[in-house]
Amino acid sequence: MQRSQEKHKSWASVDSVLDYEHGGMSYTARRTTKNSSKLKFVVILLVCYSFFISFINYGRVSRDTESPVDSDALTSGKKNIIMMVTDGTGPASINMARYFRQYRDKLDIDDVLTLDKYFIGSSRTRSLSSLITDSAAGATAFSCSLKSYNGAIGVDGNKKPCGTILEALKLQGYKTGLVVTTGITDATPASFNAHADYRYMQSLIANHQLGYDTSLGLVTDLMIGGGQCFYLPGSHPQGCRDDEVDLLEKARNSNFTVATNKQEFDQLQLGANASLPLLALVAYYNIPYDIDRQENEYPSLDEEVRTALTLLTEATKDSDQGFFLLIEGSRIDHAGHSNDPAAQVREVLAYDKAFKTVIDYIDSAETETFMVSTSDHETGGLAVGLQIGSNYPEYRWKPDALLNATKSGEYLAKKFSAFQQQTSDKSELEEFIKTEIFETDLGILDYTEHEVSHIINHPESAHDHFVEMVSVRAEVGWSTHGHTAVDVNIYAHCNTDRGKAALHHYLGGNVENTDIGKFWEQITNSDLQHVTGLLDGTKHVPTPAEVEDEVHMFEQEHGFIDHRAEAPELP
């Protein structure tokens, strides 16, 4: 009875809103007086809808119609293929970064991201095993042109290694490369040049990347990013491998140019002073967020991209074949997992800068060069707008709160933990939190004593509290620490008219993520099934130790271990 009364009260509230919006006429009265015009209204609505659908499709070539470009002609000639991935980036992340940049730089509302200018459609992202994909299945859709289960690295739904576009092009004589800001053995890059039943098999993935334990041998000429961890023996202080193999040493002995820090990377002179093959792993794990990155310690994504483009262009200038390059803005995803808006906007802008470098390269290239940029999935369920409390929400969000924050939650959690281990004095810790973290690093001056005491009493959740304080003040919301099923944007460019027409024909509108892989297959005349047949004998099954370490590897990947370490109790 009580539930029935509550339901009646709820509908009564709806009626009151309708009364207000329609000049006080009751809902019942409106329903009675308007019954005679309902059919007419519906007919008009359907006509308007049909006109709208026709309008938005005007000029768009349906994928069910004949291609505007002859398929034989499209596959002819030398080509460069650039696949770009904004890991974990949904439309809201682009929106937030766009308006943050306009606010920060005092720009006109029409001064948008470079990405915005090359938008052509959107992609559906579900995997074989779930309506919400992970990065492994998402990247395998791009690389193998097929749906697989969450966690799959270059294997199909039956856990059989599947030929990737990178491997197919390498066999055709292309030069190939990977550029990321996470570990090079992470899911997205690994899905292009490795095969593993599960994404956490990163020791095996590293082996594959250097040509070991795979029937194809070495297929990647250039790898730039982080991830020394799985290239170093398990006994090394920073090693993560489950054996004593030193892949960095093996690479050096195989005539790789190897760079393991910023100084060695700078000696490459953005590719002008280097040769292939190149292995530049400049961090043990992930390269720090751009908001935290020190320029003298780690390269930017843009520097990595410039280096790769220079080297691959030089290596293919006298060849009949071009290059394939994967570029990933990897840590946008990590910021989404952490619900850290200040870190995420800087990651998106760092990617946009690298994206512009690619656009400029394409426009000046003599070789026909295709670029597609998309996301594997959205992370965090970001909403650029947050209702705080029970009052009717304000229609605004505040980019100044993101501008005031100059460090990520990841960085601050480590900073807080380090200071906490140095003192047992509660007053010192309170002062440190207020002045060093809230005021200096987060730019928050309106903090409350409750916020201070919460961090002192719950140090294990300090990271989450830091980023939540920023999100609330910026009035942006998050629905999850995981992924979502949101469709993601597709951006594309080519320096030929036929290439532009083909991109819009095959990838314009709303497509499956596998359609991107199929597009690469088609324009390069690749046969991924043939490559799949060559992968027999490739090791891809996990060892018992790898199964045992699954949870640990996942937590480490997303930074959940370091900032949640045990902290001493305070008096």
From TrEMBL:
Residues the record lists as binding Mg(2+): D87, D186, T188, E328
Keyword terms: Hydrolase, Magnesium, Membrane, Metal-binding, Phosphoprotein, Transmembrane, Transmembrane helix, Zinc
CDD domains linked: ALP
GO cellular component: fungal-type vacuole membrane
Record-linked InterPro entries: Alkaline_phosphatase (IPR001952), Alkaline_phosphatase_AS (IPR018299), Alkaline_phosphatase_core_sf (IPR017850)
Annotated SUPFAM superfamilies: Alkaline phosphatase-like
Subcellular location: Membrane
Sequence intervals crossing the membrane: 39-58
Record-listed E.C. numbers: 3.1.3.1
Biological processes annotated in GO: organophosphate metabolic process
Keyword Magnesium: yes
Cofactor(s) needed for function: Mg(2+); Zn(2+)
Catalysed transformations (reactions): a phosphate monoester + H2O = an alcohol + phosphate
Catalytic site positions: S135 (phosphoserine intermediate)
UniProt entry tagged with the keyword Ribonucleoprotein: no
Bilayer topology annotation: Single-pass membrane protein
GO molecular function, one term: alkaline phosphatase activity
Amino-acid positions noted as binding Zn(2+) in the UniProt annotation, renumbered to this chain: D87, D333, H337, D376, H377, H483
Free-text comment on the cofactor: Binds 1 Mg(2+) ion.
PANTHER family: ALKALINE PHOSPHATASE
Family the entry assigns: Belongs to the alkaline phosphatase family.
Protein name listed in UniProt: Alkaline phosphatase
Organism this protein belongs to: Ogataea philodendri
Lineage of source species: Eukaryota, Fungi, Dikarya, Ascomycota, Saccharomycotina
